[in-house]
Each structure stands twice: as structure tokens, then as C-alpha cells.
Write a structure and sequence with these properties.
Blueprint lengths: L5 H21 L2 H23 L8 H8 L7 H11 L16 H4 L2 H26 L12
Helix pairs in contact: 1-2, 1-6, 2-3, 2-6, 3-4, 4-6
Amino acid sequence: MEVERSRDFLLQAKRDLEQARLSLREGFFEWAAFAAQQAAEKAVKAVFQRLGAVAWGHSVAGLLEELAQKLPVPEALLDAASELDKAYIPSRYPDALPEGAPFQRYRRGEAERLLGHAEAVYAYCEGVLSQMDEGGAPPPPRGGA
């Protein structure tokens, strides 16, 4: 029997958001991008944990698409997640880019945008978990209950 760890995932997601903000403030834009992606991924995995479902992989968009089979997920959140996914590898590995190191390719505006996307994913997931904490069932799946 697995232990339900949604709170742990959400706490780490919040910490990853803090790291993204710190990295952004200090000019480490590639790390801000990666931390934003990680925050979003862990926030979504927190919801899967609460639902007792398995969440495999690192694609925030893929995870949200799977979650959308159980809960309503706003289309704008799926779009934001797709952009976050693009930072998973290129923000860390030079060979994922045509040339240059990640720190040379990520800019403040991109890091700010990705942080905003991660904050939106986090807020959505926190809201779903809060609703469940209050004794409410999660929203019905798309297309009816």
C-alpha cells in the first residue's frame, strides 16, 4: 500500500516556485525556467497523488491531459504547460540547443513567462486539492460525471 504524498509534492512545488523566483532575480534565467517546469510538474503530481492515481513522466502538458480525463482542466493551462515542457531539457543541456550553453539562450522575458505559467498551474492544483480538503469531491470529469 502506497502512502498518499500529495502534501509533500505540493510543498516541494511551492519551494521550486521560490527557487524559480530567486533564480530569476539573480539572473539565472535557465534555472528559473527549469525550476518553473519542475514546480508545475510536482503540483500536477500532487493532484494525482490525492486521487490515488499514478503519474508517470515529466511532461506537464501530458500529465494535465491525463488529468483532464478525471477533472476539468482549462485549455489555457494546457497551452501554458506545453510551453513549460520545452524548458525541461534545453534549460540544462547544451546539446539540446543548436549552439551555445543554456545560460546564453534563456532571457529574462522567457523566464518570467514560464514562471507565470508555473504559478498558474500551481494555483489550479492547489485549488483542486483545497476543494478536496474541504470535503468536496473534485470537479466532475469533462463530458459529464
